[in-house]
Design brief:
The chain has one helix and 18 strands. With 260 residues, it is mainly beta.
Length: 260
């Protein structure tokens, strides 16, 4: 699969759609995300990439800048090809990148897997990108308490990111799952990040890099997902961010979900 782009405009005559530049020029590209930065008048696209995969479990994270005039820049690699090994094909934890546009850079976040002697380590990693390419090295946003210990169906993690111009910081939303005796114990998590890459707690205090995120909610559920948005008019209501996530409706059957 390839990633292509399209532009569209609304007018009294209706919707006008035109083809934009091809984003990924080779096959093996999946799950893209895109953000626009008005400060630099540029779009950034990131995606999972398998063009050089040796096995079905191998994924890299690749990006490409596109100018506001829809001129494609060069590709760049955010995360090298690594295996995302699962014990069952339904275990769909892959990089699943997400983006946010700040004042002078973008923030890309993705899941990363590392095989250790004592088990599998999952992290949510982040990296800043400027219009000329990646800036600095990637760094862990949170260590994910997810354990894939059995064959059979397994839940997927989700990522979301946004930028608050009022607070001058990024917010990353994450969902993660931990096996328990009663099924999957799932969390909706957030993590604040300054433009210099410092992790910040809910109260604004600096945090170490070995954190697991700040819990918004939790449930014995395997379908928890999350999305975050910044309130650009926070001075009106004093609300900086809004998070939404899905989980089971209270007191209802297992197929009944609400958005919280």
């Amino acid at each position: 699969s390839r990633i292509t782009s399209a532009t569209f405009t609304f007018s009294q005559a209706g919707l006008n759609v035109s083809t934009g530049p091809i984003v990924s020029t080779t096959g093996g590209a999946f799950r893209p995300d895109v953000e626009y930065n008005p400060q630099s008048d540029a779009f950034l696209v990131v995606w999972e990439d398998r063009r050089m995969a040796a096995t079905v479990d191998d994924f890299a994270v690749v990006g490409r800048m596109i100018s506001g005039h829809l001129v494609s820049g060069p590709e760049f690699v955010l995360s090298e090809m690594i295996p995302y090994v699962g014990t069952d094909s339904s275990a769909t934890w892959t990089p699943r990148p997400a983006l946010a546009a700040g004042d002078d850079s973008f923030l890309a976040v993705w899941f990363k897997q590392k095989q250790l002697d004592e088990g599998t380590e999952w992290t949510a990693n982040a990296r800043f990108i400027r219009t000329d390419g990646p800036s600095g090295q990637s760094f862990p946003v949170a260590h994910m308490p997810f354990a894939l210990q059995h064959t059979g169906s397994a839940p997927s993690g989700t990522l979301s990111a946004t930028f608050s111009r009022e607070l001058n910081e990024y917010l990353v939303g994450m969902s993660t799952h931990l096996e328990s005796l009663w099924g999957y114990f799932s969390f909706a998590l957030v993590q604040r990040i300054t433009p210099s890459g410092v992790l910040v707690g809910i109260d604004g205090s600096p945090l170490k890099r070995d954190v697991v995120g700040q819990s918004i909610d939790y449930d014995n559920d395997d379908q928890t997902s999350i999305a975050v948005a910044a309130n650009s008019e926070a001075a009106v209501n004093g609300i900086q961010y809004v998070t939404v996530y899905g989980k089971h409706a209270i007191g209802s059957h297992s197929q009944d979900f609400d958005i919280w």
